[in-house]
Structure formats: structure tokens, C-alpha cells
Design a protein that fits this description.
116 residues, Alpha-Beta Plaits, 4-stranded antiparallel sheet, DUF1330 domain-containing protein, Dimeric_a/b-barrel, DUF1330
Amino acid sequence: MTAYALGSFRDIAPHTAGGTHRDILEYIDRIQATLDPFGGRFLVHGAEVHVVEGTWPGNLVLIAFPDLTQARAWYASPAYQALIPLRTEHVKGPIILTDGVAPGYDPSQLAAKPRA
């Protein structure tokens, strides 16, 4: 079952005189190489978020993996762990890993359980 890594990033450190902080640029340059061995691919990365309910402070990143085992292995990998400080020293926000739903998922089945 497809799994996802979701990041909600905010409080991005001020840009340097030349633009985006060089550590963030290095993180962006290197992250795909950490995803490739685990089948990770970006679905959303830095796109404008259109909030229609509530608030959403910051940017959204969504990465798909073949399964949760691969997502967890990517996050724990030495290659990705080495990149984390490049991001966390300049950007705040959580990252979560979660399973998706199976093909044919029917949300009404979730509501049926408490009714039974």
C-alpha cells in the first residue's frame, strides 16, 4: 500500500543576500538521491497552497513511497539523516509518515463499524 511523507514547513530562516540560504539549496539538491533507493517521489513540493478552510501556516511537501517500510527506511537512512540539519537549522515544521488507503477504499465502511 502506498505510504506518504508529509512535511508542513514554516518559519523559514531569512534569505541570504543572494537568495535562499545555501544550506536549504544544498538540501534540495541532495534529497532526491536519498529518496531513489526507497522508491520515493515528490507529489507536492513548494506549490502554492490554497486554503479553503482553517489556516495552513507554511509550505507543503508530499512524497510517495511504495509502502510504509520504505518510507521509514528512507527517513532512518544515513543519507537522509545527514541532510536533516541542513533543513532543521533553517526551517521549522513537522514531518509525518503514514500509510495511504487501499484501492477501492470506501469511507462508509469506517462509519458502519461504530453503528454495528
